[in-house]
Amino acid sequence: MPRRPRPVAAALLVSSALTLGCALQASAQTAPSVDPRIAELLAEVSPERMREYLEVLVGFEQRHTMSVLDGPGETGIVPAREYILETFRGFSPLLQAELDCYDIRPVQRIRQEIELCNVMAVLPGTSPRRIYVSGHYDTVARRPGEPGFDWDRWDNPSPGANDDGSGTVLTMELARVFAQSGIQFDATLVFIALAGEEEGLIGATLHAQNAAAHSVVIDAVFNHDIIGNSTGGNGIVDSRTVRVFSEDPMDSMSRQMARYIRRMAGPYVPGHVVKPIAREDRFGRGGDHTAFNRFGYTGVRFSEARENYSMQHTDNDVIEGVDFEYLARNARVSGAAVASLALAPPIPELSASWLGRGDGYDADIRWRPSPGATAYRVVWREAWGPDWEHEIYVDAAGLEPDRGARVGITLPDMSIDGYIYGVAAVGPGGHESFVRPYVRPPRVVRPVPERGGN
Ligand SMILES: [Zn+2]
């Protein structure tokens, strides 16, 4: 049984100043529970296997989205997608692998009508809520010696070992270890190799749009793009850090996700540094997580710490540029968070207006009970701080719903203005959800109405 801090009975918190002392003592942020089954799953992540998948992928010479026009053969995106599909199928009968295809009319970088296919493998959970793990398997390269791209031709050699073969084989390997783990996850896991990223996030956009149109619940999108190179173009080597990019604002759910990833990586991948970056992506660059963000879904991008720009989008993006041990550690960071979230209860529902002042000077914190939660982790931080600083575990059994079917606690003499608060749900195995924060949605700026002159 995973260990976790003893929940504090809610009743204790509401009354005295003495209790506040206890609560604060109990509240410096502690490490999350470690589930030995997750640790075992992560130990299965194999650098050798990822190398094998990647050798096959780069063997197709290019995986340009337009190369679908060449049809099946030895090279191009068609044999690549067939390979990914068959590999997914070979991992486990539990994985429901299929192509996710769209007819695309010519638009911008897409110069002719094509069929574009993502390759997805679904590992059904006990609940329909989904967690995505993704990378893009398409590639693009400039012609050697030419500065720009010629979107009318797709026969340039573009091995795309790191961009984004690395994210693709990471996705494939996580599909394997999750499907073979024997763990029954609560969330449904979707492992997806996306296409058309280089032409403008097309495969991800069409998939996310479709999911939103069908009200599909997606808790999180873990996107991996350019994630296997440990030697920067400037010679700086870093094989112990991975960057996690998340969209603004400071308390977006995508940023809660980034905080969660760092928290979960700590005990499961010790020594590996998760570096959260408080921006959507690198300057002037994009990735498929943004396509999901645009439809309101939570998602982040994982990228290596040190990039080599001279290899990207060239025929020099070769397998020698991928450090498979580093890639495996990055896969374990992502896998630790995916597995924890997939075993946790749903993220609590709440509204910013459910944070009140109690009798005038307290923090009265209310939320909707989360199905299956046995405890809640109430967190807070200075309103000028990047990550959660304090926490208190509250036993769900001690919580009485109010007339609005909400539960909660009161922290006496705690200012609701001086701190940001949030709540995560914790399941019987100690697995915790993302934190849902008490923040108002960003202001929508509207033009000031014109008034008549006087
Ligand atoms: Zn890429």
Question: Could you explain the architecture of this structure?
Answer:
This protein has 454 residues and is α/β, with parallel strands linked by helices. The chain has ten helices and 15 strands. The strands form three sheets. The chain has an eight-stranded mixed β-sheet with strand order 1-2-4-3-5-8-6-7, with helices on both faces. A four-stranded antiparallel β-sheet has the order 12-11-14-15, with no helix packed on it. Helix 4 packs across helix 6 (161-179), helix 4 (47-58) crosses helix 10 and helix 7 (202-213) packs parallel to helix 9 (288-294). The chain starts with 9 loop residues before the first helix and ends in a 17-residue tail after the last strand.
